Request: fold
Amino acid sequence: MKIKSIYIITLVLAFLPKMQAQELLPLEDAVKIALENNYDIKLAKNELKIDELNNSIGNAGMLPTINALVTDNNSITNTKQTQADGSERTLDGARNMNLTYGVGLDWTVFDGLRMFARKEQLNILQKQGEAELKLAILTKISEVYLNYFDLVQQQQQLAAIDTAIVISQERVTTAQNRFSIGKASKLEVLNAQVDLNTDKSLQLKQLETLKNAKIRLNEILARDVQTEFVVANEISVDEQLKYDELKSAAENQNPQLQAQMLTKNSAEQQLKQVKSGRYPTIRITSGYNFTRSEASLGFITQSSNRGFAYGFNASMPIFNGNLQNRNERIAKVQLENANVTLEQQKRSLESQLNAAFASYTTNLELTKVEAQNLKIAAQNLDITLAKFKIGTITPIEFRTAQQNFLEAKVRYSNALYLTKIHEITLKELAGSLRF
Reply:
């Protein structure tokens, strides 16, 4: 039987019982679970809700304030009054009352356009919240992808070791048969058994690595870390990525770059708000009030008023100890810093794209080389196994061919996984990572 067929059969036999006993976790389901359960995403969603609630014309200062008020003052006094003609009037326990209630309106109708700059800044803050949520989602999807395909890789390597064990077991059986008919020494049987035990030791270590990888993925999915599952058996790589397309997408979709652009826009609006301090502020006031007063002694013992009151006030800053100039200079420096940080973010993004794309193309070619090398190693092992069965090669030569096949399989799996990592990184930087 050819080595490729042995590997496929081993893969099926190794994981079919597990897939029947455990849940198969497709990549799409893993991403869905992470997006629903992950704590960072929940926090980002709540922060966005806060930004949405804050983004209102009332919070920007465009609406009036209306207040209802009531004041009730009472007193009991001993009163003595001297009239103009010299006569005196006295009253002990004189009761006095003054009651005022009504509704008042206060509205700033002009503040140097500060309220409009504030409203635009609130719009920007909401967009920043959306960019931060997108960043949290992209980061988590990328993390799920990387850990999921790491599991696939570990699963493939376990299957390769299982294949080696099947071959080693066949070698032990062959050596025992040859020893029983006197064509091989006991040493050959013992060597074959030692190599089989070595492969079983590798299998145990790989099972531990696979288990730890499952625990990590369960933690990312924010579920019980002991949840058992199996993943897909293959890693498919997108070989059609183009640098210019990725760069264009990153300039328009990268959430970190978008957030920094919004930070710059927010700094511009902040400067406008500070500059508004040079202009006058105009407020209008109005209200409807009722006043009633009573006195036990005096010329007027009772009075009441009701009616509409209105007016306006305006103020113009003249000098405030140069605070206005200082605040404007600080706002301009903050805007300059935002521009510098934006340029730095652009250069950093371009550098990351270049490095990731170079690694992607290199590993893409490396994967093709390792695939060809694996094919050759499998053919070599097929021939070596056939020769070993008829006794024309030594056990050492057979073991070397077996190890070469295992190493070729591991290298191919690693190259494929590394290519996938760089593909995921590129799509994450471009803001186009989907599932």
